[in-house]
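Holo model, S-adenosylmethionine. Inputs:
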Amino acid sequence: MPVINLETIQGIVKRDGSLFVPEPITEAIGACIKSNHADLLLEIERLKRIYASYVQRDEPMVVDYQGQVTIDAYSANYLPRNTLIPKILFLSIVEHPAFRDIPREVRILDLGSGTGGIVLGFLDLFQKEPLCRTNVKLVCCDASKPSLAHQMRLLQKLKFANYEVWHATVDLKSNRSALLRFAPYDFIVIANLLTELSPEHIDNLLLSLPDILAKKGLLLIAEAPRLYTTKLTVHASQLLRNGGLNQFYSCPPGHQCSSERCYVWLQTSFECPNVKVGTRLIRVTNTLKTTWVLFCRSKYSIYDFLCEKYPNLKWGCAAPFGQEFDIEEKMDYQVCTPDKVINITHSRAKALVRDKKSVILRGSIIGFTKDYSKASILWHPLY
Ligand SMILES: C[S@@+](CC[C@H](N)C(=O)[O-])C[C@H]1O[C@@H](n2cnc3c(N)ncnc32)[C@H](O)[C@@H]1O
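Output:
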């Protein structure tokens, strides 16, 4: 069976060393927008204000994704970046033995699918060599019918119509029967959905997932970081581990963590053409910030891979500590390892840097010598 490796995936998802959104995707996004330019700009600003107002609130976010102008604004400004989520997922898991072979068929469940950032990202990936001979089946669930209709138009524009994509308009708080359509799934993705659900509904949804994840399957939770989601990442992790899943990334069971919140979220900027609406250009958000928690059935985590490769090191995951929106390069880090939490001050973090690839970033997995006196920075999902 053909094999994928880090170079193969980097070759598909990066251009000149950067993650990028391919032009056909932004062209299709522009072509599917129905609102006029002025309304669109006002709505983008309104959405930005809503999202900003929830950053420090410990409660579900309320956004109504029914109106066409809201759907258009979300698509123009945020959808391009979300198409990168499946691509970063592939970069992150390529070291996992279960994902090195190119599968004949892949079944994907996208929860809170909306206008289709995740779907477009997966299908774009599976159009490219060497993944293009894989048969892909997708189930896309969302409560907003207009969002799913918009997604279908995007799929048609991109000529993704030959994939088996099944759309279900469902409120996931009360109806999860659609989840069984193509079960069990190789990938289950929850992106920017938990932020809108209450703790009770999150628990019910998450508890239904281990049973429909394939034996070699992988579950990704990717949520924009804010007080509510950084807290519930810790909670979701405990819940899913208790439900029999293993955390592949970021922290395996037993790692010490002093915080009730999870400060491990990744931040990346990427290349993206502006979205053309009629004759006008809309500037697109070109940074992606997400908490990034990956679960699988098999008892294998990125730490197993690293321990096999470097058996004399002890491993931990780095998260900047303190105010989340401070300047990243000036932050102190906490690294949770199996034995203790190591604090690395900003100046020590700088001293550790040996080359471009060994800069401490959020989510870097760091190998320490057995007495923790020295550290080498060796792995990051975005490298
Ligand atoms: C911020 S959008 C994310 C869309 C997509 N996952 C992405 O990352 O681009 C959140 C989506 O979750 C959907 N949603 C919110 N609550 C839901 C519920 N109870 N059941 C199903 N979908 C829901 C909304 O309709 C919306 O399309």
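Residues 65, 79, 82, 112-114, 117-118, 142-144, 147, 171-173, 191-193, 196 surround S-adenosylmethionine (CB under 6 Å). Residues 6-300 form a domain with the Rossmann fold fold (CATH 3.40.50.150).
Archived with the compound record.
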